[in-house]
Amino acid sequence: MSLVRRIARPMLAAMFVVGGLDQLKHPGAKAKAARPVLDQAPRVGLPDDPELLVRANGVAMVGGGALLATGHVPRLASTVLAGTLVPTTLAAHPFWNESDPQARAKQKIQFLKNLGLLGGLLLAAVDTDGKPSLAWRARRVGESAQRTVHTTKREARHAAKAARREARLKAAQAQNALS
């Protein structure tokens, strides 16, 4: 792992670990903020208890943050954290609902901060740590298989051509022996 990744991953993860622990310890205020978002969200089989959902989000944040910080499954951890950040941002920083210009500006800054964190998480989610991605490896296997097929066909053509030549030579030798 490079030095930049070793430093940057814990820095990115710290906000989620701290925020997740806060959600676990004090879900009440966040549950109030989450209620309007939950009311607007389509029902996908989630419980109707905002405190439980806030705590579950906190667990995901702490777990994903710890995994990202330690460099264990960082792509999966970043994806999980990105998933936790979207509802958190929508519930906690709805600047478009603020009428007071100062409060609106403050919420907008927090919203944009979270948007920047989301960008960092998306970059971390696609970072292969200098190793080829699965898609690249799959393409290479496919290309290798195509080269093998092409080479095998070419060698078969050469072998068939050599066999025909050898057969003509043997036939000519047989004919000369009879004459």
TrEMBL record:
Compartments annotated for it: namely: Cell membrane
Q: Which UniProt keywords apply?
A: Cell membrane, Membrane, Transmembrane, Transmembrane helix
* Domain of life per record: Bacteria
Q: Which InterPro entries match?
A: DoxX (IPR032808), DoxX-like_oxidoreductase (IPR051907)
Q: How does it sit in the membrane?
A: Multi-pass membrane protein
What is the name listed in the Swiss-Prot or TrEMBL entry for this protein? DoxX family protein
Q: Which organism is it from?
A: Knoellia sinensis KCTC 19936
Q: What are the annotated GO cellular component locations? A: plasma membrane
Similarity annotation: Belongs to the DoxX family.
State a single Pfam family of this protein: DoxX
Major subcellular location class: membrane
